[in-house]
Task: inverse folding
């Protein structure tokens, strides 16, 4: 049966061939003739002789009807067992079917979407497999997902392909290439690799990260899906608030016309479902136009931009922005008032408009939960505050954090530049008069190192972000250097903010960051499709909500507050639904395969046609037959 | 006339009455065995004057016309019409195949033989009759005169059709036995594997006037067979497996026509009268019209 399945889709119907003896038996039974005695057969014999004298294949003709009936039966069985021709000779026996299910694949091509077409084509390819061929199915959009591992179970493969659902995200093929690379024979890390792996890419070729693939590109057979080009889409939207109070705000919308003709359409701007602006847009073919709406400023709300165009891809006709009031970080500075340190720190903190600064002297300090960041200068409280803290010139009372002595003119030996706090800093030129040397507990990170001791260390623990600076900033020229305010800004940014995000929108498919609060919180997220997800966010560990493959508004409720995050497509490459004939990978250009779409051509209609013709012939022969 | 009632089983008395007005027509009268009621081509001793001729030595002086001698003083012999009888040879094919048809072909042959025999006997002709197949010959001695009607009819009635057909052999044997010339009438269906030409040829060469009455049944002329059949030849037992269809039927009818016309043309070419007779036609019509038209009776 396995050998038969290389040219028959339903070889089980071949059992019907057992009907052949039945037909023969019926034929023999049917031919029992009635005997009739007549005066003389002389004239009949002559007639028979005359009729059959010049007929070819006389022997054959004796049983021509039977032969024709058998041919009809065999043709019918042939049709039932669904024979097929391999139109396209495929080599190799391991295939990786890569199916694009990004936003542009939702483009309508007639009654079907491109994704439907790609799935049909994929199932055709599955149907064309030789016995022993194995296929894995990978669906990719923002991320790649292995729908089914290497398998030769065509039922499961088909089910896996049917299971692929559209997403509103862009398409990144990088992950696919990495999956392929992991299976490739040149991967030294894997003992079992697949030498003949063939990638079959079913996509419209609108991939957003082709330049990132680079050398990872593998041999790919690219099947171009779709032909439609009529689409206009919003590829960018931005709200610009005026600095001066009361001045109007501006919403900038970038609209892309993927079509080959000029399109005139209308762009409508809504704020919380009420229209605040309508603009006529004229879009040149294959180009982007920017539209600016001017409207009164507002503190918060949801902005919706809508294109009034029934085009092939509808999901880029709307874009949202969730505008939240600017949030502030509450910072407490515990230092001697009027000291130079207080001056330097306050100057640096004042650069950040989001910082809501309070100041208190060490004597008056009491542990409070109110602040997200407490900066202690030359002072350590008995009890650490629940939020984040930075200690200058003093060590908090922590296990393992021990003073080991002091060091004059400590040289700066190394900088941990990957730490968020040290980013964009260049502290090598800082001169320090004297520093306390200390050892840090396990799990801490040394951010700035001097001889035998850290100068700055991240000793975060128990959900608190804790930073220790071992020297007194007034005993150094650091406050005078550019790196100091940057360090302070980094610290403020590093400290998690409680409450509202500043994101106006995200791109569909990218995760929503759920910032931690001081306490554990349960977040409930309602997606645009109406699904509700519950996520627990631990203190000081931001959580990420990744199920954002649909565009629209995600409502997030933390119990204390409600806010919205908008997810948009806003991607020129996805809105440009022009199917690409080539894929420009790092190494070269891959052309869309010109081979026929269907790799198998089923032959059963021809069998049915042939059976009908033979049936006609049989009837004709039956009505004409005149032989003995 | 009293004989009619006793022979009515084969022919209706009314029909026999009609037959009495008819006579067997022989264009070339052949010498008969005994003097009969027929003018012979030979000049003879009847009362009908025919011609004169010069006297030659040895002529019967009783035939000299003395009145002519008295006037012309020359001897002339007076010639008279010769009257002689005619033998009607009735050859009936009594093979198995003649038993078929509705009515049976042999029945038609019997009726025709009876009718022709009656006509001949009524005209004081000799009638020789023989029914033959390949394995048997049924015959009676030739008879003459009205008194023989009963004998003839009872023989005709007793004829049974059986055995195969060997027309040529049977004809040859008959000719050997019956040298008297006359009118030969062959009643047959010509279903002979060997062919019909032999007997027709032989009869034509026998210096008799030959008529062929080709009797075919309506089933043979226009068969009503249908379906898948195994046709068995009644005589040879050979069989033909056929599946009836339009083209086959057409071909068969073509062959029947061809068969009849080939017999006809063969006969005509040899001066043999040919009359095809369907076995279901009425004996009245056949004798009074077909045979008349065919130049057999008048």
Result:
């Amino acid at each position: 049966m396995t050998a038969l399945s290389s040219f028959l889709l339903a070889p089980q119907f071949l059992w019907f061939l057992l009907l052949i003896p039945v037909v023969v038996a019926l034929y023999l039974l049917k031919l029992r003739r009635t005997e009739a005695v007549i005066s003389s057969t002389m004239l009949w014999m002559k007639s028979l002789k005359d009729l059959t004298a010049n007929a070819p294949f006389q022997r054959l003709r004796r049983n021509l009807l039977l032969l024709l009936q058998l041919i009809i039966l065999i043709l019918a069985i042939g049709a039932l067992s669904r024979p097929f021709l391999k139109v396209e000779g495929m080599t190799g026996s391991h295939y990786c079917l890569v199916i694009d299910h990004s936003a542009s694949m939702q483009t309508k091509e007639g009654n079907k979407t491109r994704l439907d077409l790609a799935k049909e084509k994929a199932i055709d390819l599955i149907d064309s497999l030789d016995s022993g061929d194995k296929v894995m199915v990978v669906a990719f959009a923002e991320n790649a997902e292995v729908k089914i591992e290497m398998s030769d179970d065509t039922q499961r493969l088909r089910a896996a392909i049917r299971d692929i659902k559209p997403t509103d995200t862009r398409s990144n093929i990088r992950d696919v290439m990495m999956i392929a690379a992991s299976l490739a024979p040149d991967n030294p890390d894997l003992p079992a690799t697949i030498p003949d792996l063939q990638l079959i890419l079913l996509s419209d070729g609108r991939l957003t990260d082709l330049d990132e693939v680079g050398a990872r590109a593998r041999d790919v057979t690219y099947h171009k899906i779709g032909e439609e080009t009529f689409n206009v889409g919003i590829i960018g939207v931005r709200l610009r608030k005026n600095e001066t109070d009361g001045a109007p705000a501006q919403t900038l919308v970038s609209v892309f016309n993927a079509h080959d003709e000029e399109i005139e359409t209308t762009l409508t701007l809504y704020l919380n479902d009420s229209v605040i602006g309508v603009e006529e847009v004229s879009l040149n073919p294959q180009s982007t136009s920017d539209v600016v709406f001017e409207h009164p400023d507002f503190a918060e709300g949801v902005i919706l931009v809508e294109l009034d165009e029934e085009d092939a891809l509808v999901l880029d006709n709307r874009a949202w922005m969730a505008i939240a009031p600017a949030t502030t970080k509450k910072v407490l500075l515990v230092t001697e008032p009027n000291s130079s340190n207080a001056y330097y720190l306050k100057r640096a903190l004042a650069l950040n408009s989001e910082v809501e600064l309070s100041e208190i002297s060490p004597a008056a300090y009491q542990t409070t939960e109110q602040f997200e960041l407490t900066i202690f200068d030359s002072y350590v409280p008995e009890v650490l505050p629940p939020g984040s803290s930075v200690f200058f010139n003093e060590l908090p009372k922590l296990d393992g954090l021990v003073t080991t002595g002091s060091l004059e003119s400590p040289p700066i030996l190394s900088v941990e530049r990957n730490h968020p706090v040290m980013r964009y800093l260049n502290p090598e030129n800082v001169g320090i008069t004297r520093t306390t040397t200390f050892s840090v507990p396990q799990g801490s990170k040394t951010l700035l190192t001097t001889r035998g001791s850290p100068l700055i260390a991240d000793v975060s623990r128990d959900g608190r972000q804790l930073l220790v600076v071992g020297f007194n900033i007034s005993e150094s020229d650091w406050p005078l250097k550019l790196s100091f305010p940057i360090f302070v800004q980094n610290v403020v940014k590093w400290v998690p903010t409680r409450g509202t995000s500043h994101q106006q929108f995200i791109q569909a498919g990218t995760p929503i960051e759920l910032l931690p609060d001081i306490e554990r919180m349960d977040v409930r997220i309602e997606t645009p499709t109406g699904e509700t997800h519950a996520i627990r966010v631990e203190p000081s560990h931001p959580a990420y909500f990744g199920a954002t493959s649909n565009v629209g508004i995600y409502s997030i409720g933390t119990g204390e507050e409600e806010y919205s995050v908008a997810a948009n497509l806003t991607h020129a490459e996805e809105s440009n639904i022009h199917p690409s004939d080539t894929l420009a990978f790092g190494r070269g250009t891959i052309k869309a395969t010109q081979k026929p779409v269907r790799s198998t051509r089923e032959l059963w209609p021809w069998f049915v046609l042939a059976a009908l013709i033979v049936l006609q012939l049989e009837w004709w022969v039956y009505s004409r037959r005149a032989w003995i | 006339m009293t004989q009619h009632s006793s022979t009515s089983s084969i022919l209706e008395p009314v029909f026999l009455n009609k037959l009495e007005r008819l006579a067997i027509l022989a264009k070339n009268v052949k010498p008969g065995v005994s003097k009969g009621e027929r003018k012979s081509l030979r000049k003879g001793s009847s009362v009908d004057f025919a011609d004169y001729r010069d006297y030659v030595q040895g002529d019967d002086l009783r035939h000299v016309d003395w009145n002519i001698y008295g006037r012309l003083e020359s001897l002339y012999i007076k010639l008279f019409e010769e009257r002689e009888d005619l033998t009607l040879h009735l050859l009936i094919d009594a093979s198995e195949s003649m038993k078929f048809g509705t009515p049976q072909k042999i029945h038609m042959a019997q009726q025709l033989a009876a009718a022709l025999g009656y006509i001949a006997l009524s005209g004081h002709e000799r009638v020789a009759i023989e029914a033959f197949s390949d394995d048997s010959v049924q015959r009676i001695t030739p008879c003459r005169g009205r008194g023989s009607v009963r004998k003839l009819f009872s023989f005709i009635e007793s004829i049974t059709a059986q055995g195969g057909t060997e027309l040529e052999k049977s004809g040859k044997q008959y000719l050997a036995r019956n040298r008297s010339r006359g009118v030969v009438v062959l009643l047959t269906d010509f279903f002979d594997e060997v062919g019909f030409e032999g007997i027709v040829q032989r009869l034509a060469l026998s210096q008799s006037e030959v008529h062929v009455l080709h009797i075919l049944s309506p089933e043979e002329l226009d068969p009503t067979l249908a379906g898948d059949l195994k046709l068995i030849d009644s005589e040879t037992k050979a069989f033909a497996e056929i599946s009836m269809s339009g083209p086959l039927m057409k071909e068969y009818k073509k062959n029947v026509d061809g068969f009849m016309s080939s017999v006809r043309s063969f006969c005509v070419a040899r001066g043999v009268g040919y009359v095809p007779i369907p076995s279901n036609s009425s004996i009245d019509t056949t004798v009074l019209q077909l045979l008349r038209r065919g130049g057999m009776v008048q």
User: Anything to note?
Assistant: Chain B has a mean pLDDT of 82. DSSP finds ten helices and eleven strands in chain B.
